[in-house]
Amino acid sequence: MKKKHTEHKVEEQQAAAASEVPQEEVEEVQEEAAAQAEEQPAEAPADDLQDKLAEANDRYLRLAAEFDNYRRRSAKERMDLISLANENLVKDMLPIIDDFERALAAIKDSDDTDSAKEGVELIYNKLVAFLKKNGVKEIEAVGKDFDTDFHEAVAQFPVEDKDKKNKVIDVTQKGYTMGEKVIRYAKVVIGI
Questions:
Q1: What average pLDDT does this structure show over 20-40?
Q2: Alpha-carbon distance 47 to 83, whole Å?
Q3: Residue 189: its pLDDT value, please?
Q4: Distance between CA atoms of 61 and 64, rounded to whole angstroms?
Q5: For strand 176-178 and strand 136-138, is the pairing parallel, antiparallel, or unpaired?
């Protein structure tokens, strides 16, 4: 009898609970929970992770590109330093060439010995060969169009020939390039 009484009590409690919350409300709560589950799909955290991954990948690619640019720039600067390391030495030697050219001109006009001429010419030729070996070239100027990238006008001289206008008619000091860089501009006289 106790068993029946206990079962009956459980049924009464369930009935009381059911009477407190109508079945319709339970169904509504269940439907709302199902709707919320549909509105927030399980992939939402995956989308956030995908966005974070894409952002991290973008930052990585930008950093890699910046490093590659830095590496290239550094390599170019290093090559420029190596190729132009002796630029100041060569610049300091250019007046010596000027002096040799003046000495050769003076010796040719005088009746000095031929050996002195040959000696100075040998020194001059060795020096010019040294400069050529180190990438130094003379800027060709006479008869060329005046170009401010290579020439510095020190005088203008009127010419009657129209073909010589705005052209270099004389060089007062030779100009030189080392590699593709002008290390001394040619000082020239141009026709006007």
A1: 59
A2: 54
A3: 92
A4: 5
A5: antiparallel
